[in-house]
Amino acid sequence: MIKAYYENSKGEILNLLSYPFLTAEADWFDAEWEDDVGGFIRTVQLDVFGANKEDVSQNMERLYRVLGVDAETGKFGKLHVNGTYLPCRIKASKKVTWKSFTVIETELSFTAEKLSWVMVESRSFYPQTEASALEGLDFPFDFSFDFTDARKGTAVWEVDHIGSNDYQMIVYGPCVNPRILINEQIIEVFATLEKEEYMIIDSRDYTVQKYLVNGTVQNLFHDRALGKSIFEQLPSGLLKINWSGEFGFDLTLFLERREAKW
């Protein structure tokens, strides 16, 4: 069963497959591999229902208010389909036909800077005081032995995707100069995080920020390890993760694809 909805930049949601808004036709499963500097358009044919003329008018007004926010402010919302989302905003809303006083057929055109449907996958890695079983290997049957590493601060994560991926990492204090090795990529920042402080590294916008207990945010961009960029995308496949085991962190991957997930 397809799930589809639009979420504007204010977090307001418009369900596109639930009364009174029912999608009759959409091209979100169409893919293109040639980039277009002018952006991409995705179209949704939407039937807007109501119990009577006044009810339809109220629903059309809600449609405008949810979709119009991003068009008026120049921000991007998210078109969600089956667990993937496309950063976009409404470009046009054309009233195709008035089927009756209780149904209006509307053609919605969404514009996106690039055709990248995003699927988010996250894992949490906790402080390890002793050696623990490797994570991420899920077999449909049991082995007579455990996949256990002899060292603390080790884990694996099997990422079922085709290309490389942007990421966001949240490192939790207390720790000093946190360093994480993912396959051959070193992610290291020369900073001290006290208890209840945390740091966010985001490869999408090339930022490293420290969040203090008092609410202050510090820019740690120039405190990152130099050499190979920590903002380089992470590969798919088997990720071998190593760190001291003395602190915890969350790792979120943004898996991009050219069409919405089926």
TrEMBL record:
<protein>
    <submittedName>
        <fullName>Uncharacterized protein</fullName>
    </submittedName>
</protein>
